[in-house]
Design a protein that fits this description.
5 strands, elongated, alpha+beta, single chain, 5 helices, about 160 residues, three-stranded mixed sheet, about 50% helix
């Protein structure tokens, strides 16, 4: 479908058409509208279009993170955690690190961004301890199916 769209734009912008495009255009132009192949192609294109519209309108689980299933569970199990809740839990853990004055946490599917203001300790020490704390909290408290990679930024507090 993408190749057809690309070729149509390519030809409409004044470039020469490729051989398969001219062959396809000739076949479509010479066949009658009630031909089986034309009707089949139209039905497939319509079904694909409807499917794409349904997928676009379906919200999905973008704001939720899947949790790890316990090893001793019996049967199918699905549990999720809201990203905002995970961020609050990680922010509380970051605030427990000595020297952190303020912390902001943003949780995405593959990455956790932590920004912390340090008041009285060396920023390199706080960054190392903060990274370890975030990883430990992800492993022990959140129990996510796929742990996002932490990205920690530490700066000296302006006040």
């Amino acid at each position: 479908m993408g190749a057809l769209l690309f070729e149509a734009v390519w030809v409409r912008t004044g470039h020469p058409a490729t051989a398969w495009w001219t062959h396809l255009a000739d076949e479509v132009a010479t066949r009658p509208v009630d031909d089986v192949w034309i009707l089949t192609g139209a039905a497939v294109a319509a079904a694909l279009g409807i499917w794409l519209i349904v997928l676009a309108l379906t919200p999905g689980l973008r704001r939720q993170l899947p949790l790890r299933v316990p090893a001793d569970s019996r049967g199918p199990m699905c549990a999720v955690l809201d990203r905002k809740s995970a961020g609050l839990l990680l922010r509380d853990a970051a605030m427990r690190v000595p020297g952190v004055n303020a912390a902001r946490v943003r949780v995405r599917r593959r990455k956790v961004t932590v920004r912390a203001d340090v008041r009285f300790r060396d920023t390199a020490d706080v960054k190392d301890e903060l990274t370890d704390t975030i990883r430990r909290e992800q492993r022990e408290q959140l129990a996510l199916a796929r742990s996002p990679r932490p990205a920690v930024r530490v700066r000296r507090s302006p006040t």
